[in-house]
Predict the 3D structure of the following.
Amino acid sequence: MWLTGRLAPDFKTIADFRRDNGEGICNVCRRFIQLCRDIEESIQRYLNALETADRTQPAGRPLACRHHRHILQLCEFDREQDARAARRRIVAEDVRLHDRVECGNAQFPSRQLQ
């Protein structure tokens, strides 16, 4: 939006773009899904290699243990970030609803919303 000087396309422009470029949009989505699957397979191969390294490592502390712990820490961090984002969305929705109720009370003082 900032690039076009705050001009926003209307619904007809967007509908025309989707109609004219439908095949390209589908191809981009298809390639993105394939990329995600490839990344997931790569991660799984890496984790399998870590498990194999643990089994082939001599007695003592396994090499992949450190990597596994780090992966678990990253997963925990992702869960915390998701929880924080969910809390921010809930607070924003509460504020929006509160503002809507306050606006309704100001417009219609005889109909006080509870």
The chain has two domains: 1-56, 66-114.
